[in-house]
Amino acid sequence: MSITFLGVRHHSPACARLVSRTIGELRPAHVLIEGPADLNGRLDELLLGHELPIAVFSHYRDEERTATSWTPLCDYSPEWIALTEGRAAGAEVRFIDLPAWHPAFAGRTNRYADAEARYAEATARLCRRFQVDSVDALWDRMFEFEPDSGAGSQEGGLAARLEAYFDLVRGDAVADEGDRAREEYMAAWVRAAVAASGDGPVLVVTGGFHRPALMALTGAAVRGGPGVAGGCGPGADGPGADGPGADKPGFEGPGFGRLGSDRPEAERPVGEPSGGGWPEVPGLPEGALGGSFLVPYSFRQLDAFAGYQSGMPSPGYHQRLWEAGRQAAGEDLVRAVAGRLRKRGHPVSTAGLIAAHGTALGLAALRGHREPTRLDLLDGLAGALITEALDEPLPWTRRGPLRPGSHPVVVEMVAACAGDRVGRLHPGTPLPPLVHDVTARLAALGLAPCEGRPVTLRLTDPAELTRSQVLHRLRVLDVPGFARVAGPADGTDPVFTERWEPRTTAGRDAALIEAGGFGATLEEAAAVALEDRMRAAGPDPAALAGVLFDAVVCGATRLSARLVAELGAGLGRATQLGPLGEALHTALGLWRHDRVYGVARDPLLASAVDTAVGRALWLAEGVQGAAGSADPGRLRALGAVRDAVLHAGELLSVSQEAVAGVCLRISADPAAPADLRGAAFGLRSVLGDTGGRGAADAVRAAAAGPGTLGDWLAGLFALARTELTAGGGPEPLIGVLDDLVRAMSEADFLAGLPALRQAFAYFPPRERERIAARLIERRGVHGSARALLRVTADPLVIARARKLEDQVERTLDRYGLRAAP
Fold first, then answer.
1. Contact, 34 vs 17, CB < 8 A?
2. CA–CA dist 479, 352 (Å, integer)
3. What span, in angstroms and rounded, lies between the C-alpha atoms of 254 and 671?
4. Which of 67, 105, 347, 384 is nearest to 245 (CA)?
5. pLDDT at 313 over 70
6. d(C-alpha 643, C-alpha 651), whole Å
7. 683-695 mean pLDDT
8. Hey, which residues does 293 pair with through a beta bridge?
9. Which residue among 6, 319, 460, 648 is least packed, with the fewest CB closer than 10 Å?
10. Chain center to CA of 46
């Protein structure tokens, strides 16, 4: 009996070839693979004949936590090769890792996530030693593109190089508690296979990070068995090792035991698995819901440049490398880059491609490569096709996703390397109940996205309201197919129709399968997804208000009641006026207007409105700091208070007189921000309690600080624009403002112009045109007010230019350099 440990980098063609060759030479009796052990009874489903890439999507939910995880597989994944070729060779093939729902995976959304932080120092030393920029470049040079001398331990062979590399990068790194639980569980499977195999070889294929630990944990079995070899495999997952994990609590409880840790290895009979048979697969804790389904995956999701932690970069290139070799992969890469750039209007000449090829050949020779590698080709293309300086380093010189602002040519090069392949499941693949429920509902309602027709819905019609709720439930589940382009944005929006337009259905099947983790029916799944959002929102009133509105339009009435209670609690603890105002605006609108959705005059909403008004007034009176520009968020909050006082006064425990008193104190407080003082005066005006002081007098007083006049006006117009324009226009306020602005110095005007523009932005275009016409009349000139509002350049740019010219003239005057007239 022999046991061979192969530590691999996930999604590496080189490691996949090594696995294939090892199976062919070893003819193992058992092939054990890092993967979810709870899928062992469904391996036939995994091997139905899907078009890869695909992934195992796992979900879990209990009262305390929810978790989702993916285990992706592509044609050149070592795990896929171990599974398919192991079966073809007649071996017993099993996954040996813990289920994805287990707390050992807490915080990870991918089983094959990286552990880069653990070996960053070692890989950095290797990068310096081999004079490469990144760990991916290091991997390519050492393994993916170098000659392979076979699977044995010959000097220079791939397996020997991998073993040395991975043992070095794991070094003395200590696995976290989650990884220790996983390794102890996998070791139990190895011991069971050794006991069950008799004299047959056992092959263990795991991420290289785990290989040294598994060898140590099974050391007694390896040393004691007849004919046992230590294995030829590499060690840790290189740049794609298994994931980091924060410190986690112990895993006690049903199915959470510290597998393999209760009994020292030395006390077990040699080769005997704990329990005397195959390890038990942990079951779900009582009351928890969970499961796994296959989903289509895409090369974009596998690409390290798109953010996939343990991905090999450029999966499209590596697919071609796997299928046809380095030369064909390189030729396809150049063609794909040129084609994408030309399609987007970027000139790519034949001469440029010849120059890129020559540069790649030169770089390959300089770097000691027999022929150009992926990085040689990319560097050659970048050198030939990008003629200007780059703000960011080339993405293949580091690890991680593309950064914002990357050069368009670089973006297209990365996309060409990634490829656009999307996996497809075999028609016989079992699907979660939600997929069938959604398909049936959409067909019955005439909403199948493949029909490609826009949908306009009258929300006052019960049948069309039902269709709207179905589409909203798909929206909150992020299922592509339709996009809402028009409709009520919140409870105050007097709109009773919605328009939905068809969108691409790419990724729809995968999204539906993943959404199946929330529930078996569309209504249940949407409600659970909203509950998750509610928990994530915490005490944030604006986020809770957004969830509340979505719950209402989805028809999740039972959830809405809980949400309103949570919203009320969040409103009572709010510390910022802006988010509080958003929540008040939504709750008040739903209470006033939403007879369509059946929540108008809801008593819970009434309580939330009352809480929010009291909290908003308390927060507003406490805001200090005269400096700073107008804050639209807090102005919107006072606007929501105004609406509540005017339209829902019977709900409020605070009287109009008390509200006016708070506003009087704010408007007279010199330490309060100017926009808040203006808004407080505006709210007093709306309530008819200004103490006999008109808006014109208040403006003259505010003009004592010309730098804050615009902010004060922004607050005034945000709260009382309608009252100011009643009767045909804001007279005599416009005349007073005109006189004040004309009296400003050039410097004061230029300094105050941005705030003044922001203030008048509260007027709609027609009212701004009327104001412009009145200003023209005051000057006794003839002209078009509409033309006055249509400038050829941004007024702020013109103002900055004027300010710069003024500074230049003053500087010239100071040094006597102004030219004579």
1. no
2. 43
3. 60
4. 105
5. yes
6. 12
7. 76
8. 57
9. 460
10. 29
User: In angstroms, rounded to a whole number, what is the distance separating the alpha carbons of residues 508 and 479?
Assistant: 6
Could you say which DSSP state residue 110 is in?
B
Cβ(536)–Cβ(566) under 8 Å? no
Average of per-residue pLDDT across 195-210: 88
723 vs 701: CA distance, rounded Å = 20
- Only one residue has tokens 């006049």, namely 709
CA 363 to chain CA centroid, Å, is 37
Q: What is the DSSP letter of 554?
A: T
Nearest to 72 by CA among 234, 240, 248: 240
- The residue whose two tokens read 């819970």 is 604
Beta strand pairing call for 92-97 and 30-36: parallel
- Cross-strand bridge partners of residue 294: 56
Task: Report residue 762 as tokens.
Answer: 């509260």
> Quick check: helix, strand or coil at residue 206?
strand
Helices 557-572 and 522-537, interaxial angle, to 10°? 10
Segment holding 318, helix H or strand E: helix 315-324
Three-state DSSP class for 73?
Answer: strand
| Residue 285: other Cβ atoms inside 10 A | 14
For the chain, give the percent of residues with pLDDT over 70. 83
Q: At what angle do helices 709-725 and 674-686 cross, to 10 degrees?
A: 20
How many angstroms separate the CA atoms of 585 and 636, rounded?
8
In one-letter notation, the amino acid at residue 639 is: G
Q: Which residues pair with 33 in a beta bridge?
A: 95, 205
Position of tokens 């398909």? 439
Check residue 398 and report its DSSP letter. Answer: S
Measured CA angle at 578 (ends 576, 583), to 5 deg? 100
CA angle 732, 735, 738 (to 5 degrees): 150
CA distance 769 to 767: 5
> Counting beta carbons within 10 angstroms of the beta carbon of residue 492, is it exposed (0 to 12), middle (13 to 18) or buried (19 or more)?
middle
Identify residue 653 by its one-letter amino acid code.
S
Q: What is the pLDDT of residues 60-71, one digit of tens each?
A: 888 878 888 889
Here the tokens at position 304 are 């390290």
Q: Cα separation of 786 and 770, whole Å?
A: 9
Tokens of 581: 């105002």
The amino acid occupying position 211 is: R
- In angstroms, what CA-CA distances link 463 with 35, 48, 370, 467? 47, 41, 69, 7
Residues of the chain with pLDDT > 90, as a percent, come to 28
CA within 13 Å, CB half, 784: 5
Contact 428, 48 (CB under 8 A): yes
Segment 737-745 long-range contacts (CB within 8 Å, at least 24 positions apart): 737/699, 737/713, 738/775, 738/778, 740/699, 740/700, 740/703, 740/706, 740/709, 744/706
Q: How far is CA 548 from CA 461, 526, 643, in A?
A: 22, 13, 20
